[in-house]
Amino acid sequence: MVNVIIEVSKYLMILLMAAYTYLNFSYFRFHDERGQKKVCRRQNVAMFLLHFIAYLILYLKSEDERIVLFYLAQIVFFGAYLGLYRMFYPKLTRILVNNMCMLLCVGWIVLTRISLDKALRQFMIVSAAALVTWIIPFVVDRMWQLSRIPWIYGIGGLILLAAVWMVGNNSFGAQLSISFGGYSLQPSEFVKISFVFFVAAMFYRSMDLTTVAVTTLVAAAHVLILVLSKDLGSALIFFVTYLSMLFVATGRWLYLLAGTLAGCGASVVAYGLFAHVRTRVAAWQNPWADLDNRGYQITQSLFAIGTGGWFGMGLFQGMPYKIPVVEKDFVFAAISEELGGIFAVCVLLICLGCFLQFMMVAARMQALFYKLIAFGLGMEYLVQVFLTVGGVIKFIPSTGVTLPLVSYGGSSVLGTFIVFGVVQGLYILKKNDEEDYEEEQT
Q1: Tell me: the pLDDT tens digits for 335-356?
Q2: Can you give the pLDDT at residue 192?
Q3: Quick one: how far is CA 87 from the chain centroid?
């Protein structure tokens, strides 16, 4: 009987996820607040139903009473987060908050399936991150002085990255984190944000050749330290983000072409210098040649995706735990195996919806500083999603970055909450400016 319920439930979950995703994009058709609120309410219904079905299956298969308590704790969190956020920030973009909650929901479902202990720990991290970042929209909306301190962002980021390079912990050949008091922190997740603020503040002050050259040198220093730390995934995110921001700020194709050529040259150099880069490239080119060693992770990922097909095998019907580090870098493979390719594509479309919201906020901002912040954070988010999923499906070599809000990892979750909080603050700032302008006209 339980197997029948699992088989039916996977189709219901796909249907609910598809409905949520459809509403995610139909939201853009409405320009009146009433229509947008209606779409968001329907999204909430779809999310809570999907959440209930998933945890019902998880409980029936595991018979672990902790799952029931964990489910109820999540309901309290989602209700409090959605309700209080709208109460304190009535002018927020609700679709972005909904998408955050849906991605968190998917992440908790998959993590609970893989390891309940890690899911519980992730829940504590998310709760703390939500509490800590609650004030960010308020700060962004009121502190226009943020553009006056570019060198605090730039030098502070370099110091943090240098500390990781010198005393950081080694993980799969790269120095990624710093440990203290039994906890580990990955500073690059936060330097990504300060890096965008630095570039935006510098270009806001001036666009002359000297400023561009100095900014480029500091940006290159960020990337170089990450390369020396062998954190090439983050280095690529920084590089692409800076090149995109430079092009948007200046509109010069020469900069874009020169930067692209420099990036290609740097990739060749990194391939020659670092053995673990050559290993990942070799595993990407032909993982079947060494199934038991360097090709094991990617082949298991491809087996999982192929086994799941479009409709998935159902929760607890697959073997996602066979993929090394599945809860972090390869969580997309676990989603594809048990929840299905359609469900996984919907997750990607929700991420795309978040990116489009970032770009819409950037397009609406008049001040270059705010415009570049929204654009830069959006590019970092998009590149990270691309690198994660691209590595899982063997489109590109694996880079070791996480899927924001879905993968397991405290620094990634907190950093992503900060990013979304900043964009919410910019959206609220623009709404307030528009209302003030309308009042002046009447």
Answers
A1: 999 999 999 999 999 999 999 9
A2: 93
A3: 25
Residue 256, both tokens: 């874009």
Structure confidence at residue 255 (pLDDT):
85
Give the rounded distance of the alpha carbon of 140 from its chain centre.
20
Q: Which of 125, 181, 185, 136 is nearest to 160 (CA)?
A: 185
Q: Residue 10 — φ and ψ, nearest 5°?
A: -65, -35
Distance CA 61, CA 58 (A): 5
CB of 336 within 8 A of CB of 304?
yes
Say which DSSP state 179 is in: E
Residue 171: in which H helix or E strand, if any?
strand 169-171
Map tokens 């906890």 to a residue.
183
Give me the residues of the chain with pLDDT under 70, please: 1-2, 141-143, 168-177, 179-183, 276, 290-292, 433-442
Distances (CA, A) of 215 to 212, 225, 320: 5, 16, 44
**Among 103, 88, 97, CA closest to 50:** 103
Residue 111 to residue 265: CA distance in whole angstroms:
39
